[in-house]
Design a protein that fits this description.
- This protein is α/β, with parallel strands linked by helices.
- The protein is built from 24 helices and 18 strands.
- A 5-stranded parallel beta sheet has the order 2-1-3-6-7, sandwiched between helices. A 5-stranded parallel beta sheet has the order 9-12-15-8-16. A two-stranded antiparallel ribbon has the order 4-5.
- Helix 7 packs across helix 8, helix 14 packs across helix 16 and helix 20 packs across helix 21.
């Protein structure tokens, strides 16, 4: 069946160009030059998609976008003049499918039309129930749960999948932001393209531009071959920027241009390459607060936050915990190749529903994996969960919380009574931290004292991980200082005091000669500082008997650094005499 399209623009030449392009693609099109004419065509005929300009003689194209997106599922794209990105973003928020900039590029127009034709027209068949559609089945299999907060979330995901607008996923750690991002991609017209997830906080800042945009062979030291960037890998698909708040400011500027112009320039190349990607981003931090603090660019914030989707915490959807637990136990049995699939007892299931999940869905899965490991039988009981016993007051706040939390909380509002410090503490960062509740609960059950980790002394030299003291040096330097009852730390302090006093005595005559009447170095600051550094090194070498390793230890530096400084300052053994 021949596809049909409605083209709305007041420029005759541009309309003719778009009509010729659509005809070559096998699409029949009608042209309207005014808003009223477009409304007449739309009421009389049915179209597979619409392409409209935002500035029309008798009104705004935003009105047409609002009318079509509000009444039908037909995708509508907008044509914007160069530099009018704010209008394009407003059109996307009103329900526009995508936008294309003037001057019109035919390859970009063809891509837009092909993506529009791939959009699934849900609800066109009144006899087909929504639960029977492949999209709904895929959504239910990936996003587990049918609680009050999950049903509107699933409906919103289906709507976002039809659009090409950038989506910002906000929510606490462990709420499933990447799962939702992959769902949006798989339900969208870009499902045949690549889904490229990237953790922005895991890429070193000096390598970030090369990772995102790629580089040419020989463009910098170590570039032994051409490399394709993440933008090129996601061409025709979706690029998911996880933890986008961790992007440095210098990279935010380059990313903004790539999103706005939809072109990237490879490092070492002289021309820009057009890319057709959809941007999805996520973070557990509050981007609005970061914008106010000046650590995140406001213009980039409005580019990636065209549509915001807030994901609910697990505490707001406690009714889904039994279904999620059953789903995760089936996955664990399949991955671990267990003969008998594990199952929860009624008491264990009830205990999970009253637990305060600071790590959300991720914490639930980790807890179940731990329980399967500790349980000797396939039946997981309450004692295998490693959770403390409930008190009568523990159930009341959770019941109130689940009833009152109708909407998904933002990332900046984790449960205050569990982790009030920051959202970064929502999840354990290491396996040892994940296993911490087992030992803590066991300690409480046995009524034994918790294991105290001794507090290590502060490291005065952060670049050195191990400090080795030399008894001979300490004894020699602290000969004039009596030992105290504080042990090695007192000896080290006395050694430092002896070194400082020796240095002050040695430099006293030099200070009187090198300082002029105004109290400033007579031969300049650089010469004065080098003289002080040289005198300190000589003092340390004298106290250690010209042992460079021990002298470096006293000065708080490394052996290589001391040897370099001695060579630079021309210090040799003759100066000991």
């Amino acid at each position: 069946m021949t596809k049909t399209a409605l083209v709305v623009d007041d420029e005759v030449d541009l309309c003719r160009l778009m009509q010729i392009t659509l005809t070559k693609m096998g699409i029949k099109s009608d042209v309207a030059y005014t808003l009223s004419q477009a409304r007449g065509y739309w009421q009389e005929r049915e179209y597979d998609f619409c392409l409209t300009d935002l500035k029309l003689p008798d009104g705004s194209g935003l009105e047409l976008v609002k009318e079509i997106s509000g009444s039908t599922n037909t995708p509508i794209a907008v044509i914007t003049a160069h530099g009018s990105m704010d209008l394009a973003i407003e059109a996307l928020k009103l329900g526009a499918f995508d936008f294309v900039n003037k001057p019109l590029e035919l390859p970009r127009l063809r891509q837009l039309v092909e993506n529009a034709l791939k959009v699934t027209h849900q609800g066109d068949d009144p006899e087909a129930a929504p639960e029977c559609t492949p999209e709904q089945k895929l959504l239910d299999s990936r996003l587990i749960g049918d609680s009050a907060v999950m049903l509107p979330l699933k409906n919103t995901i289906l709507k976002l999948a039809r659009s090409q607008a950038p989506v910002f996923l906000s929510g606490a750690s462990g709420t499933g932001k990447e799962v939702v991002a992959r769902l949006i991609h798989d339900l969208s017209p870009r499902r045949d393209g690549s889904f490229v997830p990237v953790n922005c906080g895991a890429i070193p800042s000096e390598l970030m531009e090369s990772e995102f945009f790629g580089h040419k062979k020989g463009s910098f030291t170590g570039a032994v071959a051409d490399k394709q960037g993440l933008f090129q890998q996601a061409n025709g698909g979706t690029l998911f920027l996880d933890e986008v708040a961790d992007l440095p400011l210098a990279m935010q500027v380059k990313l903004l241009r790539a999103i706005q112009e939809k072109t990237v320039r490879t490092i070492g190349d002289t021309k820009e390459i057009p890319v057709d990607i959809r941007i999805l981003s996520a973070t557990h931090k509050d981007l609005a607060q970061l914008v106010q603090a000046g650590t995140f660019r406001q213009d980039l914030y409005y580019r990636i936050n065209v549509i915001e989707l807030k994901l609910p915490t697990l505490n707001a959807r406690r009714d889904d915990i039994p279904v999620l637990a059953t789903h995760f136990l089936a996955l664990i049995a399949e991955e671990w190749q267990l003969e008998t699939p594990p199952s929860l007892t009624a008491a264990a299931c009830e205990r999970l529903q009253h637990h305060d999940f600071a790590g959300n869905v991720r914490e639930l899965r980790n807890l179940l994996e731990r329980a399967v490991t500790l349980a000797e039988t396939p039946n997981i009981d309450i004692n295998h969960l490693g959770l403390p016993a409930l008190t009568p007051t523990d159930t009341e706040p959770h019941a109130v919380n689940a009833a009152t939390q109708g909407t998904a909380p933002t990332a900046e509002t984790p449960d205050a009574h569990t982790h009030p410090a920051s959202a970064d503490t929502l999840l354990p960062n290491s396996p040892s931290e994940q296993m911490a509740p087992i030992y803590s609960s066991a300690a409480r059950d046995d009524k034994s004292q918790p294991i105290q980790t001794p507090t290590s002394a502060s490291n005065l030299h952060p670049y050195r991980t191990h400090t080795q003291h030399y008894p001979s040096v300490i004894k020699g330097a602290a000969a004039n200082h009596p030992k105290t009852a504080q042990g090695d730390s007192a000896e080290t302090i006395n050694t430092a005091k002896g070194l400082a006093s020796t240095h002050q005595a040695a430099q006293a005559p030099n200070e009187t000669t090198n300082i002029n009447e105004a109290g400033l170095p007579a031969q300049g600051l650089e010469h004065y500082l080098q003289a002080q550094e040289k005198q300190l090194i000589i003092t340390a070498l004298k106290q250690t008997g010209w042992n460079k390793t021990q002298a470096a230890e006293l000065l708080g530096t490394t052996f290589r650094s001391l040897r370099y400084r001695m060579k630079k300052l021309e210090i040799d053994e003759d100066q000991l005499e």
